[in-house]
Design brief:
Elements (H helix, E strand, L loop, with lengths): L2 H23 L5 H6 L8 H9 L3 H7 L6 H9 L6 H25 L12 H10 L2 H4 L3 H4 L1
Helix pairs in contact: 3-4
Length: about 140
């Protein structure tokens, strides 16, 4: 891999790592969960890796069963220029389908990690702060006059 090509791959990775550090330091965690109150398909991956790196593999799999998928995803990202485009696309689609399937299963089954609480998301809380409770807004205009 040429130096210029490597730098082109490392810059997005470093920006991603910087964003992860900022989100961790601000205690926001997952930005999707923070904004919407709904867990993203990757929710729990960071905690799963923390468990795995400290030797707690059963906790890692319970936190996110696909945490190991990050390794081939990273390698696919890093070497995508050297692989056939069709193979990269197929692998990416399979990974996304797998992530979404596990996310839906965890969302339906219920989990300590995955949640669906839109009322706790920033958007709903900001809306309520600006306009009041939703129940007052749902009344027809002519009833409030």
């Amino acid at each position: 891999m040429k130096a210029k090509e490597l730098l082109k791959k490392l810059v997005p990775l470093l920006l991603f790592l910087a964003a992860v550090i900022v989100l961790a330091l601000t205690k926001i965690g997952c930005p999707i969960r923070f904004l919407t109150g709904v867990s993203c398909p990757g929710c729990g991956m960071t905690r799963a890796w923390a468990h795995a790196l400290t030797g707690h593999f059963s906790d890692a799999f319970l936190t996110h069963p696909l945490f190991l998928l990050a390794v081939p995803a990273f390698l696919l990202f890093l070497f995508s220029g050297r692989l056939p485009k069709k193979a990269v696309r197929t692998a990416a689609v399979l990974m996304i389908v797998l992530l979404l399937s596990v996310w839906l299963f965890r969302m339906i089954r219920g989990s300590d990690v995955v949640m669906f609480r839109p009322s706790e998301g920033f958007f709903v809380r900001a809306f309520r702060a600006l306009f009041g409770p939703v129940s007052e807004l749902s009344r027809p205009f002519f009833e409030s006059v």
